[in-house]
Amino acid sequence: MRREILHGTDFCAVTEDGRLVEYIPLENAGQGGDIVLGKAERMMPGLACAFVDIGRRRSGFLPLKEDSRSFQGGPLRSGEKLILQVKKEETGEKGAFLTRDVTLPGSLVILMPMNRYIGVSGQITDEGERKRLKEIGGRIAEERFGLILRLAAEGAEEEAVRAETETLLDRWKTLLLEAERIGVAGTVLYHDSPLDRLREDYLARGVDAVRETGALEGDLARQRKLAEERKVPLPGGGNLVIDRCEAMTVIDVNTAAAHAGGDKEATVLETNLEACEAAAEQIRLRDLSGIIIIDFIDLQSTEDREKVAERLKDCFARDRVKTVIHGWTSLGLMEMTRKRR
User: Fold this and answer.
1) Is the pTM of this model over 0.90?
2) Pairing state of beta strands 209-212 and 3-7?
């Protein structure tokens, strides 16, 4: 498979064997991952949150208690100046979702300066390698900060991991100095460049080229347009119907024109396998997240159901976003979750 990262003046994109699998419009990429200086405005104990001025149209939403048990920050105080990271961008009537548990990503590691957790990417499955990397992380951190060893760290020497960690730690120290020097709520201390993030996230998966281009053209432009449609055709004549709801995304698989003659069970299986490829592609391209339900065409054979589940897992192995395939429900629906970015 050939993977390319494309970037223009107003977008970044990823292609795999000529198929568009990610598209990030830069006009919408100015918040997620940014580290900003904020000021706690209103403490809302009943909602277990604080509303924070971060210089945006709406106040940001900050939980009073972070998810991580190893987070080192103290209790929030009204009027306090805070270094925060945008976890989820401002949308509609909702302000940005914020965290004090800042992360700085590198190619090999993710630095968590306000944490003490040492972890290893779940995509590294060899237990011996996981133990080795966790020990390396512990030696480097010495309980001064947290680290997550990324997929690209698999097989890496300790010196390389240590060098990148020190670079990220220097960046964090610079941010602290900038925050103290400027002191104005809403100041962006660090902008999470989508292009840099793509390079770092796909390093371990392999990138054949990084190319600058004026705009998407030809078939890539057509694929981008298709990602805005509700119905997506499949090569064999079937289609997907994609509906985004408040609580989840539902994808319905239909045989449509694919049902013309031949072995019905074979046709159904082939359409479902095509749907795995197309659904994974559209989920990545549209950046769908949260709960996702896929209503495949009914399969009578347990063996065929297993083939579909395995194909879906293989398709998402290329995804840089954590995705969990939970399997078939009692109603014969495929249930999965994809991490929000």
Assistant:
1) no
2) parallel
